[in-house]
Here is the input.
Amino acid sequence: MSEVNIGGNTASTSSAPKDVNHLRRAVLIWVILSIIGIAVWIPLSPFILPPAASDLDVSANFTLVVFTILSIPVALFVFVFLGYSLLTFQVKDRPVEDATPITPRPGLQVGWLGITGILCLFLVIWGMFGFYQESVASSSAPLVVKVTGQQWLWTFNYPQYGVSSQGQVLEIPVNRPVQFSVTSEDVLHGFAIRALGVRVDANPGEVTTTPITTPTQIGQYTVVCVELCGLYHSYMWSAVNVVSASEFNSWITSQGGHV
Amino acid sequence: MTQTRRSNLLQALVPSVVSGVVLGVIGALVFGAIIARADPDNSDAIIVSAYLGWTLLFFVGIGAFNGVWKWGFARHEPTADESLHIAGHKQGLWRYFRYTTDHKVVGMQYLATVLVLFFLGSLGAFMIRLEQSTPGAIFFNPSTYNTIVGMHGILMIVSTIIMVSGPFGNFVLPIMIGARDMAFPRLNALSYWLLFSAIPVFLSTLFLGGFPTGWTGYAPLADQVLTPGMDAYCFTIILFAISTTVAALNIVTTVLVMRTKGMTLARLPIFVWGVILSVILGLTAFPSFIISQVMVLMDRIFETSFFIAAFGGSNWLYEHLFWFMGHPEVYVIALPAMAVAAEVTAVFSRKSIFGLRLLVGSLITICILSILVWGHHLYTSGANTALDGPYMLDTELISIPTGVFFLVLVGTLWRGKLWVTVPLLFVAGMLVNFVIGGITGIFLADLPTDQILHGGMFVTAHFHFTLVGSMVFGFFAGFYFWFPKMLARRLDPLLGKIHFWLFEIGFLGTFIALFYAGLQGEPRWSANVAPPFATANLIASLFAILIAASVFTLVYNVVITVIRGEPAVANEWGGKTLEWTVPTPVPLENFEELPVVTSTPYDYGSPEPAAVPEKTVEAQPQLES
Amino acid sequence: MKQHSSGFVIGIIVSIVLGFGILAGVWLSLQAVGSLGYEPGVLRATKNGANQATLNLSTYPDSHVCHSTEGEPQLDWVTYCSSTSLEVPPNSTITVVIDNYDGASTLVNNFFSQVHGTIGGVMTVNNKTVTQLDPQDIGHTFTLQSTPDSAYPIFVSVPILGVADDAPNAVTINGNDYPKPNVISFQFRTGPAGTNYVWHCYDPCGEDRDPPYGFTGPMSTTGYMAGTLAVVNY
Here is the structure.
C-alpha cells in the first residue's frame, strides 16, 4: 500500500487523542473494508451482470469486473476517510478555536499523483489492448449481417445467402464469427446487442460495422435501439436467436436462400 | 389623486419586466404575422420570426436599450444619480423586476430563476419516473414522454450551468475580490434578462407539439418537420448560450481587472478560481453549441442540408459540434461546484485548504484537458475509430486531477474541527456521490466497456451521479452557506438536514437501481420499459418519491424563512473571505472603503508552522440605506 | 431558537401535499395540451362470430375526411381513418380490410414489399391473392410490431397498393373526391388479452422534401400513420 505522510504539527493546542492512531486506524479500516468489498463483489458479479453470450461480451464483462475490483479501494478510500473525519473530528455545536493547518508534503503529492497516474495508465492500456484485440480479431469470412434501421424497426439481410429475416427476429449460428454492417434509412439509431457485446450507431448514408464477435451460447437475446429516434424508439426491439449451425442452415433454406 | 397614482403605476411598470413582456408578445405577433403573409406554409419560419420579435421587443420594453440611447455613442457619461438609479437605488423590491445593474440584484434574480427552473425540471423528472415505474406507455404516450424527457434534460442542464456562477458568481464573487460591482454592470443585467427571455420561448414548445429528440437535439431527428416545437428548443439554446457568453466575459474581466489591492492571484479564494476557469471553458465551448443550433434551424427553415446525408450532409458533423460543447459543458458545471465545496469545507473545518496550490493546479488541468475529450461520446457512432485511442487516454487522464480534488477535500477535513452544518453535509454527500460518478465515468471512458454500456441507463445513472449527486449538492452547499448573506435570514437547520438526508437517500436508491438496469442492458429514453427491467425501474421510482419530498421540504424551508425567518448576522459561519466582512444586508456599494488584502482567506489555525502574516482589513464599512 | 411545534410538522405535510398537487396539475395540463401526443378515439374491431372480428380502415392522401377540424399543415397529411388507436378481441382471427385512396411513393427498404406474418403468408388485393408487390407500386404499409418480451409477439406487415397517378376521381366521401380505392385484406391471429402492440407505416409517405426523405410529418405522428393496437376483452 502507499505510504502516505502528512506533515504538520503534532503539538496540538487542545486535548486531542494520540494523533498517529487516527491515520493508522483509518487506513486499517480502509484495508479491511476493501478486502471485504472485493470478496463480496467477485461472487456477486455474475448475478449483477447479465449472461454473456459471445467472446466479446465475456471479455467486456470481465473488464467490468476487474475495473470494479480496482474501484472498490478507491471509492472506499474516500468513504472511509470522509466518514472517519466526520465522526471523529466533529465538534459539538460551533467550534471556538481553529484547527491546526496541515500541508501536504511533496512526498504525498508525488505519491498520490503517481499512484493515480499508474492506475489511470493501467486502465488506458487495458482498454487499448481490448480495443486492439477487437480490431484485429480476424477470421476468414465472418457471417455478414446487413442491418437496416428505420423508424422504428430493424430489418436484417444476409447478403451471403440472399435472404432477409422475417420480421423482428435475427437468426445467427453459434460458434461462428459474425459481423454486423449497419445503416439507417432516416435518422440516427443505435444498434445494440448487450449479450453479444456489440454496439454501433446506424447513420443515414453511411455503413458502420461492429467488431467481429462470436456467439458462444445458444439462446434468445435482444437487439435494442440505443439512440433516441422518435416516437416508438422504445419499441424498436428485435429478438436474437442464436441457434445451432444445422438449425441455421435449415432456416436459411426455409427463407428461400441458398446455403 | 388618481392622476398621480396612475402615473406612479406607469412609472413603476415602465420600464420593467411587465412592459418587456407586453411589448415582447406584441413583437412576436407582429413578426410572426409578417412572415405568415410572406411564407404561409413554413411554420418553422413563422415561429422563429415570432421568437425573434419577442426577443427584440422584450429588450426594448425592459429598457435594455435605454442606456445605449442615453449614453451610447459617446454622448455623455451617466451621472451619479443615473448610475444609482439603474443600479436599483431606492426602488425597493421593484429593482428585481427591472433592468438593474447591481450585481447583488442580478445574483438574487439568478437565484430565484435557478430555483424555479430546478423545480420545473424536477417535475419533469417525477413524471419520467412515474411513467417508468411500470412497463408500457401508461401515463403518457411516447410522444409526450419524449418531450418531457427533453424538457427535463434541457431545463436541468441550463439550471446546472448557471446554478453556481449565476447566483453566487454574481452576488458573492465581486465582494469576495473586494470590488464594488462587476466590470460591465449593464452587461450583467443583459445576461440575466437573456436567460429570462428564453424561458417563455422554451415553454412554448408545449403548445407547439413538443420535441422528439431529448436534450441532445441530435440532428437528423431534429431536422424532421413534425411540429414546430423543435424550433423552441433551438432558439432557447441560442438565447441561453448568448446569455452565458455575456456573463462569462463579464466575470473574466472582473476577476482579472477589479481585484482589490493586495489580492494577487495567489491569494484568490478558491471559489473565484473555480468560477473563472469555468467561464473560460464556457467561452471556448458554447459557440459550438450556438452554431449547431443555428445550423439545425437553417435545415428546418431554409431547407439546407448540413445534417442530411441524402443531400451531402452528415449527422457526425452535428455530433462533433454538439459534444465539443457537451463535454466541456459538464466541467463548466463541475468546476464552480467543486470550488464551492472546497470553500465550504475550509470554513467548517476551521482549517486551511489542504494543498491550495495543488487544487488550483488540478482545476486548471481539468479545464484544459476537458476541451480535448469530447470524442468519447462518439466511440460507438461509427466515426473516426483512429482517434478513439487518444480520446480514451485523455479522458482517463482527467481522473488524475479529479482525484487530487478528493485528496484536498479529505485532507482539509482530516484533523479539522468539524462543525457539521447543512452546507458541510452537502459537501460530504457530494464527495460520496462524486466518487461513484467518477468511477463509473471511467467505465464509460474505456472502449471495451463503452461497447456494452453506451446509450443505456448506465450512462444516465453516471451523469446523474456526477451532475446531480455531486454538482447540485455542491450548489446546495453554497446555497445554505451564502443564503444568510444574500437574504439576511437564517434557514432552518433541521429542515435543511431533513432536505439533505431525504435527497441523498432517495438519490442513491434511485440511481443505483438505474445502474443495475443499465448493466442489464436497458436503453435510454425508454417510454416503454421492458419487463426485464421493470423491477429496477420500480425501485428507482419509489426512491424518487424521497427526492420529491426533499424538494418540497426545501421549498417549505425557503418560503417560511423568507416570510418569518430569523435575521442572520454579518458573519454567520465565521468565514474569512471578504464577503463575510461586509454587513448583512449588503450595502449598495459593498464596501465603505475598499479593503487591502494581505493573505489568503484560509489562514485558520496557529500562525507558527504556516508562517502566514495576519490579514488586516482597514476600514469598517457602514450601513447605507 | 425556534420552537419546532406541531405547526411545523403540519407545515411540512401541507407543503408535500401541495407539491404533489402541483405535480398532478401539471400532468393534467400536459394531457390537455392537445398538440402533444395526439391520439384519436378508439376503433374496435367488429365481432362477427366466435373468435372472429373485422377491422375496417382506409388510407387517404389528405386529412379532410377524419381530421377535418385540424388546421394546416395537418390537413394535407396522409392518414389512416377512422382511427389509429385500434382494439381487437383476444384469441381471435382478425380480418383487416384497408381501402387505399392514396398513390404510390418510393419504398426505401424492399423488405416491406413482401407480406409478413399474415395467415397463410398472403394478402388479397382487389380479391387477388398475392405475397408481395412491386416496390414501385406501394403507397403505404401496415406493419404491426411488438416487443419480443411481450406475452404473445406478433409481427405482421403488408404493403398497400397505391392507386395510379392518373386515376380519375370516382367516389365522394364527406364532400371530398377520391379515385376508386384498392382494397387490401389480410388476416392474423391474436393471443391473450392484455398485450399491446404498435403499428406504423414503413413506406416514406410523409411530407417535406423529395424522396427519400418522406419520413416527417404524418409518418411519425400518432393519429395519422402510426398508432397502437390493444388486445382487450369486449
